[in-house]
Amino acid sequence: DEVGIDVGTKIIPVLVEALGPRFAAPAAFDAVLKDGRKGRKNGRGFYLYPSEGQQRQRRKRADTSLYTLLGVTPKSHMLPATVAQRCVMMMLNEAARCL
């Protein structure tokens, strides 16, 4: 969301060519882009962002309409620490591949 989903997906073919198919974009990205979700730049991506005119104190919040768009149902609530741990584990796996 921060860089722009549309911008981020432009690097995917380069990554796939250089590093292999594990860097291929999931099919869900096509649906997200077709729905006009570009991230922070247009206020809508995986999160919803308050517009400039709205209160600055309001923070981004997850856009739950994505579940319908992608045809998925969340199975349970994950603690923020669990989400962070999973992200770190993915980075550690990539670091191990570099060795």
TrEMBL record:
Keyword terms, alphabetized: Isomerase, Lyase, Oxidoreductase
Classification via Pfam families: 3HCDH
Gene Ontology biological process: fatty acid beta-oxidation
Keyword match ATP-binding: no
Molecular functions (GO terms): 3-hydroxybutyryl-CoA epimerase activity; enoyl-CoA hydratase activity; long-chain (3S)-3-hydroxyacyl-CoA dehydrogenase (NAD+) activity
EC number(s) per entry: 1.1.1.35, 4.2.1.17, 5.1.2.3
Region annotated Disordered, chain positions: 37-61
Entry annotated with the keyword Oxidoreductase: yes
InterPro entries: 3HC_DH_C, 6-PGluconate_DH-like_C_sf, FA_oxidation_alpha_subunit
Superkingdom to which the source organism belongs: Bacteria
Positions of the 3-hydroxyacyl-CoA dehydrogenase C-terminal domain: 1-49
PANTHER family: TRIFUNCTIONAL ENZYME SUBUNIT ALPHA, TRIFUNCTIONAL ENZYME SUBUNIT ALPHA, MITOCHONDRIAL
Name of the protein this chain belongs to: Fatty acid oxidation complex subunit alpha FadJ
Source species: Serratia marcescens
Gene for this chain: fadJ
